[in-house]
Specification:
Layout (H helix, E strand, L loop, with lengths): L3 E5 L3 H13 L3 E6 L10 E4 L2 E4 L10 H10 L9 E5 L2 E5 L13 E5 L2 E5 L2 E4 L6 H7 L1 H16 L8 H9 L1 H16 L8 H8 L4 H13 L15 E5 L3 H14 L3 E4 L2 E8 L2 E8 L5 E5 L2 E4 L3 H6 L1 E2 L4 H8 L3 E11 L21 E4 L8 E4 L14 E9 L4 H4 L2 H14 L8 E14 L8 H9 L4 E3 L2 H4 L5 H17 L5 H5 L15
Parallel strand pairs: 1-2, 1-15, 2-11, 8-18, 12-16, 15-22
Antiparallel strand pairs: 3-4, 5-6, 7-10, 8-9, 12-13, 13-14, 17-20, 17-21, 18-19, 19-20
Amino acid sequence: MKPTVIIIGGGPAGLTAALELVRDGRMRPVVLEAGDDVGGLSRTVDYKGNRMDIGGHRFFSKSDWVMDWWREILPIAAEQPEVAIAYRGQQRRVGAGDTAIPADGRALLVRKRLSRIYFLRRYFDYPITLNATTLRNLGPLRLLRIGVSYLLAALFPRRPERSLEDFLVNRFGAELYRTFFKDYTEKVWGVPCADITAEWGAQRIKGLSVLGALRHALQRRLKPAGGEAARNTSLIEQFLYPRLGPGQLWREVADRVVAGGGEVRLGQRVVGLRCEANRVVAVHTLDAAGTRHELVATQVISSMPIKDLVAGMQPPPPREIDAIAAALPYRDFITVGLLLSGMRTNPCASSVHRNHMPPDNWIYIQERDVRVGRLQIFNNWSPDLVADPGHVWLGLEYFCKEGDELWRLDDAAMIAFAAGELERIDMIDRAAVLDGTVLRVPKTYPGYFGAYAGFPRLRAWLDGIDNLFLVGRNGMHRYNNQDHSMLTAKCAVEAILSGSTDKQAIWDINVDDDYHEDSGARP
C-alpha cells in the first residue's frame, strides 16, 4: 500500500496538497474536513438558490503556477470579450476563449474589479487616489492637513516601527491614517492599531503607498487599455471568478482527488494527534455521530487552527508552548445575507442598474456610526450567484469575537440589526428587504497581537515535529490569501516527496509578496 498522508482541513491549502499528491502518485492523501462541504473559507454557501462567497475571493495571483493551476481546474468561458489579466508586470491574455460554458456550468468568468470606500455618506476610490472625486469629497481643509502630515511623515518617520500605527503613519501620514485606516482597522480587529504588530502591515500592504497609487492613476489616464500592469496586486482591474462561486472550483478539486485514489472525508473533526519520538504516528477524529476514530499517519499536513491543533496533542507540549497556543488571538466573522428589491438612489454610486445597485464587488464601510465593516454585492461577482437577477443580493460583513453580544444575536435579530444599519447610512430602505440569512465563521482572521508575541517559540517547537507540516491561513496563524495558502501546500508536498523535514520554504511564502486584496481586513 502507498504511504498515507493525513491532510487536516479541506480548504484551498488542504485540497491543493491532496491533488498534488494524487498527481505525483507515490502517496495516498486522506483529507479530513470537519464541515459538511469543502473549500474552507473559500467555500460557497447556498441559501435558497442565492450563493454567498465568504469574504470574497478574487482569483488572481502573482504566481504563474497558481494562475495556471486554477485554469486547468476550470476553463475560462468564451462567452465574454477578451480582456487582460496582468501580473508580474506582464499581460496574460485570457477570455474569448478557452471554452464555451459547459452544460454543468463549470467555468471561470473574467470580472471587472471595483472596490470603494463609503465614508461621509460618499464613495471614495480604493486604494485612495487624489483624483477630482476624492478632492471634492474631502474638502480643502482636510486635504491640506493630509498633505502636511504626509510630508512630515516622509521627512521624520517613526523609528523603529513597533506597531501597525507606526507602519501606517510612516507610509500615509497621520491625517490620512486617521481618516481612512485607523477606525476601519480597529473595527476589524477590536484592538487599537498601536497594539497590533507592524508585521501585519508589512505582510498585507507592503508596496502600496500614496506615490504608488498616484502613479497607477496617472498610468491609467495616459496609457490605453491593455498597457503595462500595476505591479501591486491591490491595483488589479480584472480577475477570474468561478461562475457559481469559489466553492465550485474546490468541489471540482475534491472530485479529482477522489477520482485519483485519494479520500475526502467530510464531518471528521480532528481532536488529537498522537506523537512518538518527534513524529506524529496517529490522528484522532470525531465524526458527526460522536464516534472516535484513529488513523495511522506517515506524514501529516495541517491547516487547522494552531490553537486547536496544540490542544489535542498527546503527549502534551511543554507548558510554555501550550500557554502560547491557548492564548493565540483570532477575530471571528459574521456575514448577513440580505435579499433586496432595490437600493436607494445615490448619485455617487455611479450605478446604471434599474434597482440602483452600485457596480462594486465590495464596499468598505468607513462610517463610524455602524458596526458593519464591508458590504459585498454578490451580483457583481457573478450574476449566477443570484437566483433572481432582478433582486440585489448583499453580504454585510461583521468582525467580532466568538461569544460576544453580536455573535449571540439570533438570526432574526441579526438580520434586523444589519438592515437597520444600511438604512441608517442611506443605502437602503428597510421595506426593500425580502429575505435574509446569517452565517457565523469562527477563527476567520488570525490576530497579530497579544500572545502572538510568543509565536516564534511556538513555531520552532511545531517545526521540530519531523513529519508535521503546517500550511494555510489558520494552519500557520498567518494572514495568507487563497493563493498563498496553495503555495504553502505545494511547498509542503515537495518537502514530503523529497524526504525533507525542513519547513523554512513554507514559511517563506508571502514574506516578500505585495498585498493581494482578497479579504475584509484591509487597513
